[in-house]
Amino acid sequence: IKVAVLLERRPDEKRVAMVPAVAEKLSKLGCDICIFSGAGLNSKLPDSAYSTVSFAHSDSELLSDAAIVLAVQPPTLEQVNLLQPRTILLSFIYAHKEPELTCLLRDKNITCFAMEQVPRISRAQAMDALSSQAALAGYYAALLGATKLARILPMMTTAVGSIRPARCLVMGLGVAGLQALATARRLGAITEGYDVRPETKEQAESLGAKFVDTGVDARGEGGYARELTADEKEKIASVVTRHIQQADIVITTAAIPGRPSPKLISKAQVDGMKLGAVIIDLAAEGGGNCEYSQPGKTIEQGQITIAAPFNVPSMLAEHASELYAKNLLNLLQLMIINNAINLNWDDEVLAKTVLTHNGEIKPAAVKTALE
Ligand code: NAD
User: Fold this and answer.
1) pLDDT at residue 220, rounded to an integer
2) Considering the entire predicted model, what is its pTM?
């Protein structure tokens, strides 16, 4: 089974879909792995780090006879045009942002598994790339916040007096938010968390954080949140404003599937924040959680720093690639049985993750939106 690993072409993407330890395991499953030469360099993985693989120096050499293609970011249209019909592709796709690519995958009869669609069920945890990458992003958000602050996070007793610990508020307690809370706490901050899913109270408290209880329950489908009504927003603002304005660092991670990022922090709330406070907005890809955020940029608004970086997992490319490659391996293990590809569509994980197969777009919602 020939497995091809793409060179990532999107600007600022440092991750790679294959690491040496995973290549060894895939070889044992009967795969011949071919990597675009240099694809691992930005993840600190020169070609010499891989022992059980071959290298290609052009996309045509890499892709013309590949049975399985692995990538982090969506491939380019040119790359897809080089694939043979029925090639299996595993990658993040985000079909609603990539209609042209999705239709090309359909028309080229590619069997594409979109990594963002892996179901959030216990059995699929080891394949859940959204979670593995979000955990790293949450950790890094706390570090970014700490380094942009002109203060320290822990309490410190010195010969000239004591410094009080910083306060860190995390808004949106999914995978990234909980990791941000844990990291800020380890750095010595007093931590507070807030979410619209009530079950996050216990999760925040188990990490030593105080839960900011607004009394609003906006649990949606599949363990995600739903959009808020105007009344709910008002009720939340009346409780949360004080916590935003007492914080030294606010980290926001809120997302609603398929919708723009909800605005959790208004301009007026920012204008009332402590001088020198920092907002790290992890929702830049969806437009940001703060009304002032400029996705992809760090700005100074008055005395408040607001950073809304894109693609935070790529900043930790070494570990992000390692975890992502392991997620891919675990998904591939469902498809490669006795050294042969065998797609069992009764398997919920494969059935829910597939985006295109047999010349069709599979998820009903994507199909309706694009066709
Ligand atoms: P996400 O990235 O979709 O959203 C981040 C957080 O933002 C969520 O906790 C959401 O409730 C919150 N949010 C949305 N609107 C908000 C608002 N207006 N105000 C405040 N917070 C708001 O979340 P995620 O990290 O992908 O996780 C989503 C869910 O999936 C969670 O319930 C998580 O526990 C669950 N999950 C389950 C598994 C599994 O069982 N395999 C794996 C990963 C995640």
Assistant:
1) 84
2) 0.95
**Could you read off the pLDDT of 183-232 as tens digits, one per residue?**
999 999 999 999 999 999 999 999 999 999 998 898 888 778 888 888 88
Residue 131: active-site member: yes
How many angstroms does the Cα of residue 176 sit away from the middle of ligand 1?
9
Spot the catalytic one: 15, 73, 117, 128.
Answer: 128
Per-residue confidence (pLDDT) for residue 258, from 0 to 100: 75
Q: Per DSSP, what are the bridge partners of residue 56?
A: 36
Ligand 1 closest atom vs CA 257: 3
Query: What's the pLDDT tens digit per position in 220-236?
Result: 887 788 888 888 898 89
Q: What is the pLDDT of residues 83-132, one digit of tens each?
A: 999 999 999 999 999 999 999 999 999 999 999 999 999 999 999 999 99
Rounded to the nearest angstrom, the distance between the alpha carbon of 20 and the centre of ligand 1 is 31
Cα–ligand 1 centroid distance for 301 (angstroms): 28
ipTM above 0.85, yes or no: yes
Q: Whose CA is nearest to atom 37 of ligand 1?
A: 120
Active site residue 167: no
Q: Which pLDDT belongs to residue 257?
A: 74
Once rounded to an integer, what is the mean pLDDT over residues 41-57? 96
> CB under 6 Å to ligand 1: residues?
120-122, 124-125, 128, 130-131, 134, 171-177, 195-197, 223-225, 228, 253-256, 262, 264
The residue from 27, 64, 224, 333 that is catalytic is 224
